[in-house]
From TrEMBL:
This is Enoyl-[acyl-carrier-protein] reductase, mitochondrial. Keywords: NADP, Oxidoreductase. InterPro entries: ADH-like_N, GroES-like_sf, Mito_Enoyl-ACP_Reductase. It holds the Pfam family ADH_N. The keyword Oxidoreductase applies. GO terms for molecular function: oxidoreductase activity. The keyword Cytoplasm does not apply. It comes from Notechis scutatus (mainland tiger snake). Residues 6-61 form the Alcohol dehydrogenase-like N-terminal domain.
Length: 126
């Protein structure tokens, strides 16, 4: 069984980036043309159009590339939890990871560097 059952009908997908096409009269934090990501999981990103309450979306600064913004809600969070929840790593210590060229792997490298943790990064030979 699932930990959190979705109310049906439901749309799958937790990661993604979208562009605001129009807003209602009471919307104050977003405007047409803004790029947004889901504020929480379960929004259902496997679709081309939808209408959402502005509280369910986070505006993305224009200097973040869309390819990065699309995975912002999952990959960096996963990397942070991998570095924080299972071991206590101190500055100067090292962590080794495989799939270092993946979105999560790249986030591990950046977060580890910010914490002073060294990384040993393994990627597959293609």
């Amino acid at each position: 069984s699932y930990g959190i059952a979705a109310d049906l009908p439901a749309v799958g997908g937790n990661e993604g980036v979208g562009q605001v096409m129009d807003t209602g009269n009471s919307v104050t934090s977003l405007k047409p043309g803004d790029w947004v990501i889901p504020a929480d999981g379960g929004l259902g990103t496997w679709r081309t159009e939808a209408v959402f309450d502005e509280k369910t979306l986070l505006k993305i600064p224009p200097d973040i590339p869309l390819t990065c913004a699309a995975t912002l809600g999952v990959n960096p969070c996963t990397a942070y939890r991998m570095l924080s929840d299972f071991e206590t790593l101190e500055p100067g210590e090292s962590v080794i990871q495989n799939a270092a060229n993946s979105g999560v792997g790249q986030a591990v490298i950046q977060i580890a560097a910010a914490k002073g943790i060294k990384t040993i990064n393994v990627i597959r030979d293609r």
